[in-house]
């Protein structure tokens, strides 16, 4: 159930455009939607997501850092982003998956939430 989440975030650090596109397309449903505070507006397509990922510098990466929680087609994941030069951040993502395990909607928040 969580394979799509790992593939989606692996794409953030893939420097090869074709490989990055393949990862995102393999993780996202046809009705894919993405939102987080760093996107100027919600992203409503895989192509839009690929354009958003173009802004990240070479060598940047994103990785799920803790075991994901999942139930009934919903997933929660904490992700660390490394932008190089000691610049990093953590975000928490909530995703809805379709019956094939692909991401329909994923929403990110800075930090890991209240503990």
Can you give a write-up of this model?
There is one protein chain. The protein is an alpha+beta fold and 115 residues long. The protein has one domain: Nuclear Transport Factor 2, Chain: A, CATH 3.10.450.50. It contains three helices and six strands, in the order H-H-E-H-E-E-E-E-E. The protein has helices spanning 3-12, 17-27, 46-53; strands at 28-35, 61-64, 69-71, 74-82, 88-97, 103-110. Strand 4 and strand 5 (88-97) form a beta hairpin. Helix 1 runs antiparallel to helix 2. The longest helix is centred in the first third of the chain and has 11 residues, at 17-27.
Give a concise summary:
Helices cover 25% and strands 37% of the residues.
């Amino acid at each position: 159930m969580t394979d799509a989440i790992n593939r989606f975030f692996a794409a953030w650090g893939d420097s090869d455009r074709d490989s990055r596109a393949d990862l995102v397309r393999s993780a996202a449903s046809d009705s894919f939607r993405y939102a987080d505070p760093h996107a100027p507006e919600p992203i409503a397509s895989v192509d839009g997501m690929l354009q958003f990922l173009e802004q990240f510098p070479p060598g940047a990466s994103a990785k799920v850092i803790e075991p994901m929680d999942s139930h009934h087609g919903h997933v929660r994941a904490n992700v660390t982003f490394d932008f190089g030069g000691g610049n990093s951040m953590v975000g928490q993502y909530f995703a809805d998956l379709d019956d094939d395990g692909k991401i329909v909607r994923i929403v990110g928040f800075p930090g890991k939430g209240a503990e």
